[in-house]
């Protein structure tokens, strides 16, 4: 199949054309980071407006790059959940209009399930790994999710562990604010940590008891905050800090970033090991995805877990880690070939669905 994918759930406007669920023929991402930077986070109203302005040029460019015509498309896929509702609506409306005018099926895709699929994508004719089969452990580490999955196939993932507070990407973003670094925070913390000593500060890694596969990052964030700014005194009901991030020396900031990064990533690898220990059947493959898989330290740590535990590791190429439409179009192929498509009344939904369901113990 040749499928056009559209992604607009947050602050990336993206379109891609993917052949047979694997080969990316054209792929364009317009990021809005500069629009949101001065606010230190994504402003929903600004995001929807920017999607509206950018989507048509992005679509034309992706189809042009793919060297196909709109009439060659077999289906139109769109990330319709979860995300910012105003942003999702822009992508969903465009996809509805295109599918209707081209007379092809419309397929609504779960953004988080798509992150989990992104490791399958290849460019051009390079060989692709076989589609994920039985006994796969899945990991999504992104701005809104930190979850472990028992994966039965591209469209079948059940949650076995998830964060009870912040997502790891959110923790990176908040750490960046605490350390006085820019937005988006993840790449800024990674760059700052490069010159740092991760042994300098012992930051807490929350295990949530001996059995849990869940995650918690709020204690780590608070510990970092107190290291940087001191313990607050309460004055007139409000916390007042002695120091600010401006008072940090360069080396101190780098050491804090490195120590934070190590604690955050170890929280993830320890739960992976726990899931492996607990599984009776045994996993043969680890599939990871989401924006934080762009982090080189995390990639290295996942590679060593995989090596140690004799797992095949499937992790997206750097460009398919953060939000992109190629993962949407790729996953949609599996629904297209199964004849499982949506009606033109497809709705945008801000809350998770499929990839959010927890497996019963
Ligand atoms: P979700 O996919 O859960 O709905 P999202 O779409 O906002 O959330 P993604 O685009 O998948 O999230 O990932 C964005 C997150 O990844 C941000 O929190 C960002 O800081 C983080 N991130 C991106 N690059 C890196 C990096 N190199 N190191 C650490 N974190 C990173
Ligand atoms: Mg984003
Ligand atoms: Fe995402």
From TrEMBL:
Keywords: Acyltransferase, Cytoplasm, Iron, Metal-binding, Transferase, tRNA processing. It is an enzyme of class 2 (transferase). GO terms for molecular function: iron ion binding; tRNA N(6)-L-threonylcarbamoyladenine synthase activity. It catalyses: L-threonylcarbamoyladenylate + adenosine(37) in tRNA = N(6)-L-threonylcarbamoyladenosine(37) in tRNA + AMP + H(+). Its EC number is 2.3.1.234. GO terms for cellular component: cytoplasm. The keyword Iron applies. Its cofactor is Fe(2+). The keyword Acyltransferase applies. Fe cation binds at residues 111, 115, 323. Residues 24-329 form the Gcp-like domain. It comes from the Bacteria. CDD domains: ASKHA_NBD_TsaD_bac. Substrate binds at residues 140-144, 173, 186, 190, 295. Binds 1 Fe(2+) ion per subunit. It is found in: Cytoplasm. One of its GO terms (biological process) is tRNA threonylcarbamoyladenosine modification. Its main location: cytoplasm. SUPFAM superfamilies: Actin-like ATPase domain. Required for the formation of a threonylcarbamoyl group on adenosine at position 37 (t(6)A37) in tRNAs that read codons beginning with adenine. Is involved in the transfer of the threonylcarbamoyl moiety of threonylcarbamoyl-AMP (TC-AMP) to the N6 group of A37, together with TsaE and TsaB. TsaD likely plays a direct catalytic role in this reaction. Belongs to the KAE1 / TsaD family. This is tRNA N6-adenosine threonylcarbamoyltransferase. The gene is tsaD.
């Amino acid at each position: 199949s040749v499928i056009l994918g559209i992604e607009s759930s947050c602050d990336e406007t993206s379109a891609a054309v993917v052949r047979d669920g694997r080969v990316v023929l054209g792929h364009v991402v317009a990021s809005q980071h500069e629009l949101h930077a001065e606010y230190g986070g994504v402003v929903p109203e600004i995001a929807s407006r920017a999607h509206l302005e950018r989507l048509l040029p992005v679509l034309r460019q992706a189809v042009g790059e793919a060297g196909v015509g709109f009439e060659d498309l077999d289906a139109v896929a769109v990330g319709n959940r979860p995300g910012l509702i105003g942003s999702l609506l822009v992508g969903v409306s465009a996809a509805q209009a295109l599918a209707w005018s081209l007379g092809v099926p419309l397929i609504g895709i779960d953004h988080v399930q798509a992150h989990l699929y992104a490791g399958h994508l290849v460019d051009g004719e390079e060989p692709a790994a076989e589609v994920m089969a039985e006994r796969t452990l899945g990991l999504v580490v992104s701005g809104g999710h930190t979850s472990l999955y028992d994966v039965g196939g591209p469209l079948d993932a059940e949650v076995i562990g998830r964060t009870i507070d912040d997502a790891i990407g959110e923790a990176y973003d908040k750490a960046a604010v605490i350390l006085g670094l820019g937005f988006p925070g993840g790449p800024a913390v990674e760059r700052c940590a490069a010159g740092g000593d991760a042994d300098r500060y012992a930051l807490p890694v929350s295990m949530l008891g001996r059995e849990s596969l869940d995650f918690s990052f709020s204690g780590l964030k608070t510990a970092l905050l107190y290291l940087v700014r001191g313990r607050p005194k309460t004055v007139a009901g409000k916390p007042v800090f002695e120091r600010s991030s401006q008072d940090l020396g360069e080396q101190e900031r780098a050491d804090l970033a490195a120590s934070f990064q190590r604690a955050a990533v170890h929280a993830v690898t320890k739960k992976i090991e726990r899931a492996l220990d607990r599984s009776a059947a045994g996993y043969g493959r680890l599939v990871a995805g989401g924006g934080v898989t762009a982090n080189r330290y995390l990639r290295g740590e996942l590679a060593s877990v995989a090596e140690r535990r004799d797992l095949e590791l499937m992790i997206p190429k750097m460009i398919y880690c953060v939000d992109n439409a190629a993962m949407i179009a790729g996953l949609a192929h599996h629904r297209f070939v199964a004849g499982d498509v949506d009606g033109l009344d497809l709705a945008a939904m801000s809350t998770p669905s499929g990839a959010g369901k927890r497996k019963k113990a």
